[in-house]
User: Fold GTPase Der from Desulfurispirillum indicum.
Amino acid sequence: MKKKPIVCIIGRPNVGKSTLFNRIAKKRIAIVEDIPGVTRDRNYHDVEWEDKEFTIVDTGGFESETGKGSLEASMVEQTGIAAAEADRVIFLLDGQTGPIADDFAIMDMLRRHEKPVYIAVNKIDAPSHEKILLDFYQLGVDEVFPVSAAHGRGVDDLLDTVTEGFASTAHQDSPEEIDEDSIPIKVAIVGRPNVGKSSLVNKICGENRVVASEVPGTTRDTIHTPVRREGRDFILLDTAGIRRKSKAYSENLERYSVFRSITAIEEAHVVILMLDATEGITDQDLKVASYAWEAGKPIIIAVNKWDLVAKETMTYREFEKDIEHRFKFSTKPIILFISALSGQRVVKLFDLARSLYEKTRFRVNTNELNELIQSATAKHAPPAAHTGGKRLKFYYVTQISRHPFIIVIFCNYPDSVHFSYKRYLTNVVREAYSLYNVPVILKFRKRA
Ligand code: GDP
Ligand code: GDP
Assistant:
């Protein structure tokens, strides 16, 4: 697969790099931020901006490691890393202090590296703060982007410009270019330690008589296991090995497994969330599931060790009801009761994964989609709030991706679309294309 372009945020300490980074990678951070020890690993994050995918590098994390003593050395190191690895650099400055000597030093270093550099001045929380922007042109640059990482102001414009020219995912998977069936379906197997992830992978590989070449993920420790079933290729992504590798994190094992799960989920088309039938579903599981769902990945809940549970029909239904009750973010979840040990219903997982994957295989006809949204908004006009009395207008709708299924609606006040209205439109799309059990992601973007 083609490498994603790398964007690096650099700048002095305290200008707001982490804040900006968190804003750009917001979903993921929300779940990993409180995992001690893990943040240090967190140098690279794949993010998506509209239909562009790129990797963002968090140089903020290096600071603590380069020592507090030498600011200059730390800057050199950061800039060196940025220049060596990044395709584009966001140079973040502090709009409260104005440019200082260190900033000019960084700018000089960046010039020598000849990378495209975007100058973003942070902490411009209101238009009245913009006066200071002129001072930053002293750095000898043509354009300065005012942003407020803390409030989100200006970040859209910055990202629009920074990602200009990056390959569009909307074209990457167009049918002319690749044979759909030759793309393996990537299935992440996630769950808390000891639920039976390794047992499941072992069972699968045994039964399908495939050479299970376990290729350890290079940077992320997700194990990739290719499997072929009924003429279709799959890649199992699992995080089972973490117990051995995680001595340093033993007390945070569960939380660490969440972090690992996330990297597997991000790479996957479909997610199998494994539970232990003797334990039920935990908050941790729900967190992971909700992360997967929001990232647009369909979920299969595999309740493992079913062989240990008494088989009265009531137990089964009770279990299901409990999951359904707590699984609020999705439509009725898909639940399969399995035994990784005996192999009971394990092959069914593949059929389900394949059918979920194929549900979003198609490309929606754009005219049809626009008509659908038009008639939905005609039926129920969007409530106008925080638009300064103006009417909320939707201009144009387009599908930007299939796996996950993402639709972008261009409108005049994207931030004013109420979540309940978003949910209404999401359901309209879901119904129209029978997208049950797969996440439908609707994004609103500004067009004046
Ligand atoms: P880093 O050291 O460059 O990663 O900076 P941080 O992201 O840790 O931010 C440093 C400080 O600036 C924190 O106290 C943030 O709350 C604050 N900060 C970050 N962004 C903004 C912003 O947009 N506006 C204001 N007013 N403060 C900000
Ligand atoms: P992982 O940490 O999620 O990879 O879990 P393992 O695959 O290492 O399994 C943890 C323990 O649960 C092992 O002792 C397995 O033998 C046991 N186990 C896994 N699947 C099943 C199952 O379906 N039934 C029973 N009874 N035990 C199981």
In short: The domain at 185-360 is CATH 3.40.50.300 (Rossmann fold). Residues 11, 13-19, 60, 122-123, 125, 148-151 surround guanosine-5'-diphosphate (ligand 1) (CB under 6 Å).
